[in-house]
Amino acid sequence: MENKPPIVSINNLFKSYRRGHQVLPVLEDINLDIADGEFLALMGPSGSGKSTLLNLIAGIDKADSGSISVGGIDITHLSETELALWRSNSIGFIFQFYNLIPVLTAFENVELPLILTGLTKKERKEHAEATLQIVNLTDRMDHYPGQLSGGQQQRVAIARAIVTDPLILVADEPTGDLDRVSAKEILELMERLVHELGKTIIMVTHDPRAAEKAHVIKHLDKGVLNNV
Amino acid sequence: MHLIKLIFKNSFRHKLRTFLTILGIAIAILAFGLLRTVVSAWYAGVEASSATRLVTRNSISLVFPLPLSYKDKIRQIPGVKIVSYGNWFGGVYIDEKNFFPNFTIDPKSYIALYPEIVLPADQQAAFIRDRKGFVAGRKLAARFGWKIGDIVTLKGTIFPGDWEFVMRGIYKGRDKTVDETQFFFSWDYLNESLKKTMPARADQVGFYMIGVTSPSVAADVAAAIDKTFKNSLAETLTETEKAFQMGFVSMSEAIVVAIQLVSFVVIIIILAVVANTMAMTARERFVEYAVFKTLGFGKWHIALLIFGESLFITMTGCVIGMILTFPSAKAFGNEMSTFFPIFNVSTETLYLDIAASVFVGTASAVIPTWRAINIRIADGLRRIG
């Protein structure tokens, strides 16, 4: 792993928000390399900038200065349209509240990102079914999110995140809305994704038990990154 | 799974709200369609006019007659093909509420001049032969249950007395614009009676209908007719049949304009209703739009989802409204046949229904779409919980 170039490389990253005339610094001079196949946990108190850093790596927010390179592409120079295309190919999102589309079945939710790929209907079906098999939800593929438990919904969300085989998975508090048993299942599933499928995961969490599963834990405090 | 399927599923996410919105649009389109049909009915006479027909009347007013002797002089004018004539009779059948238009005409020339009035040959011959005969439109005959051979009496208002007629024919319209509620009888019957009872009013006609050889000569023929009778005791005013009919419509133009305005107000009201529905829908789904964006869906996809849903709802309401317009117009037309003998939903009205619905569906989606595509993903995701 040490010989490979980092899949994510962040250099001198600054980010601030404006509230009226006031400028609030959120991230200050962040430098971070994430290796391919690494499971990294970002921890820190509320307001420390964890989610902001995750959003910047995922290309859904813009930095003030510095660079973020993902898979060799400096995404800070991409336009909105280029970022949208890049996200569809490179990033898998796992949200705290799953964010499934309620009128679509588990299968259709997983199939959704594949619409942008140009695959045929048959190929999309094969990919979605295979991915649902990875998360052990083949028997619930025709269920709507409202008919699934929180843990099952999060597994569907993980399937949706990995169905396009992205470069990295970003997870924002993926166990934050789950009970202990479901949270454990989700973390085990994420471990499997890293170990068996070689996925790179960047996870924001408050939960030390979740962070324990990670290879590397980084701590953010008042926008400054510390190794743990 | 395609986005079209998602549009369909999204449309029925709030079934009651969607149902009520579609119901509102359907009623609005129905009201719009009926109001436009009323306006069309107002202009039915104008629409039915021929470019090769002129109407000559007394230049002072339509209520003043013209001498019958003008007929031969008019026929001599170059470009004139047929000369017919008649009077508004204004008879009442049993009771005034049974109103229908009734005219006395010269049967032979009138039938030749109005080919859109379709009368079987045997009935034509019987009508021409029998001076006490009359023909009625199909709708009028059906309204009173008249059959050929029936004797019908009209009470004269302009020409006093009880006037007895024998039904000799039932005409049909060649096309939908022909009024099938009219009653025609022979001018000779009226004139002969007047010679006996009121000789001073005999040998006079209310108007001449003139067939010209082609539309291009109509203006010249009209001018020539009026020139012929200039400085006579009864000067004439000749105009195209269309202009003549428009003269009647213009008398009630304010009402027509008011109806047209109301029809557009209906569309503006429903625009507000659909815009409100779409604004609520989009506001509820900002998180989903943010999720779509994170998955890589672009602005055009988000716009397609919102515009698609808005247009799907409005066009569903439009189709239901259009379908309901036909039976409603038929019922309305039957009920109001005295005032609107021709009450047909025109193709133009249906096109206007569709155009209005597309406008409402599109306009309602503009602001929600603009807000949805411009919201930052991070802000959209923050709305969770």
Polypeptide structure, described:
The complex is a heterodimer of chains A (228) and B (385). Chain A is α/β, with parallel strands linked by helices and 228 residues long. Chain A has one domain: Rossmann fold, CATH 3.40.50.300. Chain A has seven helices and ten strands. A six-stranded mixed beta sheet of chain A has the order 6-7-8-3-9-10, with helices on both faces. In chain A, strands 2-1-4-5 form a four-stranded antiparallel beta sheet, with helices on one face. In chain A, helix 4 packs across helix 5 and helix 5 packs parallel to helix 6. Chain B is elongated. In chain B, strands 1, 3, 4, 5, 6, 7, 8, 9, 11 and 12 form a ten-stranded mixed beta sheet that branches. A two-stranded antiparallel sheet of chain B has the order 2-10. With 385 residues, chain B is α+β, with helices and mostly antiparallel strands. The two termini of chain B are 28 Å apart. The interface between A and B is medium-sized, with 29 and 22 residues.
Give the SSE layout.
The complex is a heterodimer of chains A (228) and B (385).
Chain A: E1 8-19, E2 22-34, E3 39-43, H1 50-57, E4 65-70, E5 73-74, H2 80-90, E6 91-94, H3 106-111, H4 121-134, H5 150-162, E7 168-172, H6 180-197, E8 200-204, H7 208-212, E9 216-221, E10 224-227
Parallel strand pairs in A: 3-8, 3-9, 6-7, 7-8
Antiparallel strand pairs in A: 1-2, 1-4, 4-5, 9-10
Chain B: H1 3-11, H2 15-42, H3 44-47, E1 53-58, E2 66-67, H4 70-75, E3 80-88, E4 102-105, H5 107-113, E5 117-118, H6 121-129, E6 133-137, H7 138-144, E7 151-156, E8 161-173, E9 183-186, H8 187-197, E10 204-205, E11 207-212, H9 218-228, E12 236-240, H10 241-251, H11 253-284, H12 286-294, H13 299-335, H14 347-374, H15 377-381
Parallel strand pairs in B: 4-9, 6-8
Antiparallel strand pairs in B: 1-11, 1-12, 2-10, 3-4, 3-11, 5-8, 6-9, 7-8
Helix pairs in contact in B: 1-13, 2-11, 2-13, 2-14, 11-14, 13-14
